[in-house]
Amino acid sequence: MCHISDNTHLIAILSKAPGHPLIWHQFLDELAQQLNCDTSALLVTDLMDSENTRFLFSAHIEKDYQEQYENKLNRLDDFNHFISKNPLSVFYDQALSETARKVGKAEFSTLDKPLYRFGVSIPCNQKNALSLLLSRSVAFNEAEQLQVKQTLQALIPALDEAIHAEQRHKIDSQLRHYLGGHFDSYIIVDHRLNIIFSDPIFGIIINQMDCVKISQNQFSMKNPAIEQRLLALIEANQSASIHNQCHSCQIMLIPISELKNLYQWECYKDGFILAFTHDKESDPMLDRLMGIYKLSRCEAICAQHFMNNPSISEIATNTFRSQETVRNHIKHMMQKMSVHSQAELMKKLITLTSL
């Protein structure tokens, strides 16, 4: 193992990784090579139910093994569960006491060979943690243990920043698609309007608004009647738009579950986005599609793109959606608009624009 770790290089890679899966893979690959490990992985660990633990990114781990882990071995991985309950500290599985390791490494093995693993976790929220795991089939000597521990400890701040930036990127891209364009800021709240995610810059913007208040991670509306309406909408798991409460902004309530292309494990999937934009005229075409044909907002936006260019791949690229999602939107649009071909759909959409 090289005794001079290029932590600066690894940190630089992490700074570019959010939103770029290939760069995440590059980081894991170079980290494994630098520390002389066989494999490396980022797992999203469900702290409540280990069977929901999933791979986020990995290097040198076969797809078949990943499926085996997600279907069975995640329940047996006591080491990952332990580090996830003890975040921001580096652990070597062989150095843990029998009590801490519970049943020991023998319960987590691959191809009948024991794994020797290092790990560190980053807390995401009360339910999820991100685990960085490095493993190999040969035990680490004392010098190697020290080197791996020092390297991982040095990477914790950059990894913490990068993984939260990854979450923001994923939500931002989906939110822009859902809203059909720009937003000024947003926060994520739970059923009681407790703030479970807030970007510091967005927090400053929201605090300057006249109609809302943020105090000790609690969001509230200055108008009690509007706040009660907001809570009722959240209880019903509905999306809604609240206009002109301070004569300058528009607030959109969006259940995170409506953002279809987030990661399967998304840490805030049970929460609600409150997106803030400056007041603007509504899009009459979107209003017609949603009002007359009961299209969802995502379907209506897809319809607008379809009119401009009916290519499924182009629509998917322009709306940050998978091609399968776009096909499903078009199928639902055709059903709701009572047409039987894409040609009929195009004709009906063009007719609607002339109204």
From TrEMBL:
SUPFAM superfamilies: C-terminal effector domain of the bipartite response regulators. Pfam families: GerE. Residues 292-349 form the HTH luxR-type domain. InterPro entries: Sig_transdc_resp-reg_C-effctor, Tscrpt_reg_LuxR_C, WH-like_DNA-bd_sf. One of its GO terms (biological process) is regulation of DNA-templated transcription. GO terms for molecular function: DNA binding. Transmembrane segments: none annotated. It comes from the Bacteria. This is HTH luxR-type domain-containing protein. It comes from Methylomonas lenta.
